[in-house]
Protein kinase, catalytic domain-containing protein
Amino acid sequence: MLSRALNTKPRRSIRYTEGSCRPSLSLSEYDEIFLGCMENEVVVPCDGTVAEEDGGVRWRLKDVMGASVGVVGESALGVTEKVVFSNGMCSVLKRFRMVCVRRREFGRRVGVLAAVGQRCDYLVSMKAYLYSKRFKFVVCDYYPMGSLYDLLIGAREHGHTPLSWKHRLKIILHIARAIGFIHSQSPARNRNMIMNVHGNLTTSNIMVDVDFNAYLSNYGFTQLAVEVPDTGQRKPPSPPSPLPFSCEPLSQNNDIYHFGIIILDILGGSKALESIECGSERKDEIKVKGYATFEFPFEGKDKRKVWKVWNMAMTCINSSHEAMPSIDCILQHLNRLYS
């Protein structure tokens, strides 16, 4: 598994592009004639300061374009690229397909989100951003191990060493802590931004380091791309949309629902996710089969913990939002299981 951290070969994700559009170009693949016609705008630090030439972030658009190694992931929201600068520093660039706000408001929102992220150990830090006529992107911290999606799919399709139960539980706990921090934000609104909702929870947006600590990325990015309706806690979340981009109402219930989906994916992938659509009889059958549902071996005390986490995930995806647990309740259970 650690060999993945040393592999810098550019990859293209087909999760979004397959059957819907052609893979996106990386910044480095744009034609030189096109680049020559562009303004070489400055990449702005997220704290709003203007970096000095001998310190801090001081990049221009063409510096970033030349540093791009290639596309490492795609979604309906945008394109993720790895960039390696001449000084050897690696970063991740989140390039948006579209944005819903003008330059000044984009910079304000990024600054607000970055400030929140700096206060949490389980959120990916945002370093800088650029808003130009052609490109809008945010520069974030880089994690050589990649995303949780990469780790899970690596074991399922490419023969990499699967995650152990201990590492899976640790990742689930760290994701819950990140969500708990977001949901505790007060005030809940900052002008026209909703601060106490993530809005885009997927395994692709969970980064993992070499010690299997998990970090949640893309906090608030949905509010940079589209105007998303806010329904608070009034209605239950809907299942993921098959459309290229699902403009779901921003609510903590939706975050909890998608967290439940992520937990099931961590536990057993497609076998565990089958329990979403099955009835109570099928769920009892899954409990009887036990080990066949999960992707990792477990025994003894761990068996009880695995089933408690599975039951918690099933509660998170309950169709009745009144039956959904709060993130505080989830954290209480996970902290007891992990201790």
Remarks:
- The domain at 148-338 is CATH 1.10.510.10 (Transferase(Phosphotransferase); domain 1).
- The chain has two domains: 20-140, 148-338.
- The first helix runs from residue 32 to 36.
- The longest strand covers residues 68-74.
